[in-house]
Design a protein that fits this description.
The chain is 63% helix and 0% strand. It is an all-alpha fold and 154 residues long. 6% of the residues are buried.
């Protein structure tokens, strides 16, 4: 009698486990909220685009020595750019060439808005950052520790 009860209980547990596994396959867990730390969003070709506004703001703050006032004005610009680019990436009706052109336009608009908030010295550093990104990609090497511009290699 005890063996039979054990067999029935074990069978019930296995049935519940199989049902839970089947349900979990039908309903994947929701993605983590954007405030949680995680890997950077992946762009075309699997390269990290570093589109996380917090990461970008931290890098800009470090490299340009942004004031807290500048940070509070720049963060909404970075968040807005991220939202626009994410929406564009999900729009399947746009061709790849059009998407690329629109992404460039969004980024240029954001960069121009950021430049308007910078001092002359910060604008020069920002321009150097953009040149490095164009040359090395978004995940390119960081600037030299002395703050000088990297020398081109031949």
């Amino acid at each position: 009698m005890q063996t039979r009860l054990f067999t029935l209980a074990l069978g019930g547990l296995l049935t519940l486990g199989a049902a839970a596994a089947a349900l979990s396959q039908d309903n994947p867990p929701p993605p983590p909220p954007p405030t949680q730390a995680g890997p950077p969003p992946q762009g075309p070709g699997g390269r990290g685009m570093r589109m996380d506004p917090d990461h970008q703001l931290a890098r800009l703050t470090h490299e340009l020595n942004l004031t807290t006032d500048q940070q509070s004005q720049i963060k909404p610009l970075l968040v807005d750019r991220q939202q626009k680019i994410q929406a564009l990436m999900q729009d399947q009706s746009v061709t790849q060439d059009d998407r690329r052109a629109q992404m460039r336009s969004i980024s240029e608009g954001t960069n121009n808005s950021i430049k308007a908030l910078l001092t002359e010295d910060q604008k020069q550093k920002f321009a150097a950052m953009q040149q490095r990104m164009r040359r090395n990609g978004p995940g390119g090497p960081p600037p030299p520790p002395d703050g000088s511009a990297p020398q081109p290699q031949n």
